Amino acid sequence: MIQPDKKLRSFIEEEIIPRYASFDKAHQEDHVHSVIEQSLKLAPFYDVSIDMVYAIAAYHDLGLEKDRKTHHLVSGQIVMEDERLLQWFSHEQIETMAKAVEDHRASSDHEPRSIYGKIVAEADRLIDTDTILRRTIQYGFKHYPDFGKEAHIKRALDHLDEKYAEGGYLRLWIPESPNAERLKVLQQLIKQKAKIRELIELVYEQVKSALL
Length: 212
Description:
Blueprint: H1 6-16, H2 29-42, H3 50-59, H4 71-81, H5 91-102, H6 115-124, H7 129-143, H8 149-163, H9 179-191, H10 193-211
Helix pairs in contact: 1-3, 2-3, 2-6, 3-5, 3-6, 4-5, 5-6, 7-8, 7-10, 8-10
């Protein structure tokens, strides 16, 4: 795998990635590392700058420092305002990076404006059933601490239906990626109401135990 500029990597690892430590369990350092890894795996298939792809992936969720609802827009603003990036990128490149960050959100109503946006959006949508279920429950514990077990399970089931089920709002912008096939498998699982509930209950107990 082609690696980004060494000095850029040092900057990102020392100054950017640690900022994820304060976010909810679904968006901490393991998440940004995953998005970076998946982005760098997709990048060689396109005529893109590896350094730009790397930086976009690293900055994509920083807006969570403000709030979740507008985090994609805030993340883009952070990219535009971080003058340290001028050590590696032109103003035009930084603008492209900011737009890519803004376009990464799964609930976005428009297609990403560049291949850079499509890459980070695809990497952010890593379809892995175990990871999705765990992060869904973790998010519930973080943002709805007063919920009981049944409320957490219902919220998780509703979220899966709204986002991942057939007709859900999740969109994949690189159809040839492994995510497409994984999504089909997850969609079939979601249709099996008893099975998906059983899995969510199991994950709920695991996450709850880890928090005790």
